[in-house]
């Protein structure tokens, strides 16, 4: 039996890797790493902390007694103090100096930044895998003609590869935004209860330089370039808002692509991967619903909604700090990353495994080509001496009549036969066959695809080097 709620992001969607990043083990071992870095740095700057105390803390880094911590928190009603006591029980020699001079946000906020950095790196890897998959898809289909749609009404032809470039460009923009935010992440540091560093100034007998050096040492030990220049008790919650905006941007791009793929599946021009024994519907055995793309759209909607949480949190912080951010951030930040992890893994799976049907695309093109080709037919007839305005009106009348036959009677489009039989156009069958060659109607789409891949996509992939394989256990 499973009598309690389980988060589907963990049980159904997100990878083990992303779940591990936001796991209790990851969180609380990072707290302990920060306490060790603090103690080491304070010792290096002259405080009476022994190497034996630091070694004792390091020896028990991974031994987290969750039952003891829960018991302490039940008494103390404070999660950081509970873990200080639980860690101190394991490290009796170090117990007096654990968390020396720090406030709760020293471990809480610094850990959040550390975990978000690790999670962004995971998202970046997934993004690169998706861009790589899309580049291969675009290259393979650069010359495959397909009907383009505006307002989901038939428009001029393009190629499937060119359409994939539209999706890829969105993800490249997302990667650029991600790299910007990832590159500017800084630790909160150790600025004390209101960001003034007063407790550490007291520890170092008023030596301001040692207080500043303490932050630099901790940042180095945690592999950061530096800390926030100023803060209250917490780092600015705008950082969370910026990071969630990046995740929401990825979700937007993925949902747009997945929606396009769902429309193409309806047109029978493309299928997402479908397993041998996969069931599309419990009632309609013939169904092949695009469930992966639907899941991408569904999860993306959730990620976009989470930006409201971080925006409100950033805008409602009081003075140097308030605690109404805490419960919200415990949910919104991990869930944003867990959902994007699932979204990108699904997207890679779909693009790498989808099946394309060029013959169906050609069929749809042929159905609309009589209308699409009328401009070329008009130019051909004019070049043979016809009156442009009279011919334009003749095409208009024939097109209206042909469209009426298609829509009212369900007949095939006979516009070309009408034009071929109209002596004003002077068309022969050979003339018409030459005019109807599909490659004439895709414009520069093949060249644009290759140019985009060469100038924008392949340099990004080359800079990334060989991508490690995705060993995700996500359900796709």
Fraction of helical residues: 55-70%
Structural class: mainly alpha
Oligomer: single chain
Termini separation = 25 Å
Count of discrete alpha- or pi-helical segments spanning 4 or more residues? 19
Order of helices and strands: HHHHHHHEEHHHHEHHEHHHHHH
Major sheet attributes: 2 strands, antiparallel
The rough form would be described as elongated
Strand content: under 5%
Poorly predicted runs of 5 or more residues: none
Count of DSSP strands:
4
Average pLDDT figure: 93
Q: How are the strands ordered across the major sheet?
A: 1-2
Q: Radius of gyration, rounded?
A: 31 Å
Annotate the secondary structure layout.
Elements: H1 8-13, H2 16-21, H3 24-44, H4 51-59, H5 66-76, H6 79-90, H7 104-140, E1 145-150, E2 153-159, H8 160-183, H9 198-203, H10 208-221, H11 238-266, E3 270-271, H12 291-315, H13 326-353, E4 355-356, H14 358-372, H15 374-383, H16 388-409, H17 415-421, H18 429-435, H19 445-464
Antiparallel strand pairs: 1-2, 3-4
């Amino acid at each position: 039996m499973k009598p309690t709620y389980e988060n589907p992001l963990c049980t159904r969607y997100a990878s083990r890797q992303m779940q591990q990043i936001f796991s209790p083990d990851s969180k609380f071992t990072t707290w302990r790493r920060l306490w060790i870095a603090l103690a080491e740095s304070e010792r290096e700057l002259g405080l009476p902390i022994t190497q034996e105390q630091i070694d004792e803390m390091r020896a028990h880094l991974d031994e987290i007694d969750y039952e003891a911590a829960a018991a302490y928190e039940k008494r103390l009603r404070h999660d950081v103090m509970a873990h200080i006591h639980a860690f101190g029980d394991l490290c009796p020699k170090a117990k007096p100096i654990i968390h020396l001079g720090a406030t709760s946000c020293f471990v809480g906020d610094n850990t959040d930044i550390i975990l978000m950095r690790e999670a962004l790196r995971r998202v970046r890897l997934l993004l690169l895998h998706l861009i790589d998959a899309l580049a291969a898809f675009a290259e393979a289909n650069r010359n495959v003609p397909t009907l383009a749609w505006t307002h989901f009404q038939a428009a001029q032809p393009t190629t499937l590869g060119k359409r994939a470039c539209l999706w890829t460009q969105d993800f490249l923009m997302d990667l650029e935004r991600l790299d910007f935010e990832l590159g500017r992440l800084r630790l909160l540091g150790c600025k004390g209860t209101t960001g003034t560093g007063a407790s550490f100034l007291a520890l170092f007998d008023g030596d301001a330089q040692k207080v500043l050096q303490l932050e630099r040492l901790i940042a180095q030990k945690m592999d950061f370039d530096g800390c926030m220049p100023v803060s209250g008790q917490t780092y600015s919650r705008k950082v969370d808002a910026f990071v969630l905006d990046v995740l929401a941007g990825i979700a937007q791009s993925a949902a747009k692509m997945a929606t396009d793929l769902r429309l193409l599946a309806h047109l029978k021009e493309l299928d997402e991967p479908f397993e041998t024994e996969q069931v599309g519907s419990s009632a309609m055995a013939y169904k092949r619903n695009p469930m992966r793309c639907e899941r991408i759209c569904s999860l993306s909607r959730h990620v976009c909604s989470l930006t409201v949480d971080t925006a409100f949190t950033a805008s409602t912080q009081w003075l140097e700090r308030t605690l109404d951010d805490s419960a919200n951030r415990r949910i919104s930040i991990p869930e944003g990353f867990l959902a994007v992890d699932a979204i990108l893994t699904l997207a890679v799976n779909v693009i790498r495994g989808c099946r394309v049907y060029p013959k169906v695309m050609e069929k749809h093109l042929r159905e609309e080509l009589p209308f699409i080709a009328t401009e070329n037919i008009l130019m051909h007839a004019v070049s043979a001496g016809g009156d442009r305005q009279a011919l334009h009106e003749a095409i208009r009348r024939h097109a209206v009549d042909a469209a009426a036959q298609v829509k009212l009677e369900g007949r095939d489009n006979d516009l070309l036969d009408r034009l071929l039989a109209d002596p004003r156009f002077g068309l022969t069958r050979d003339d018409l066959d030459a005019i109807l060659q599909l490659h004439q109607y895709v414009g520069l789409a093949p060249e644009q695809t290759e140019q985009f891949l060469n100038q924008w996509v392949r340099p990004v992939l080359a800079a990334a080097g060989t991508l490690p394989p995705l060993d995700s256990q996500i359900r796709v």
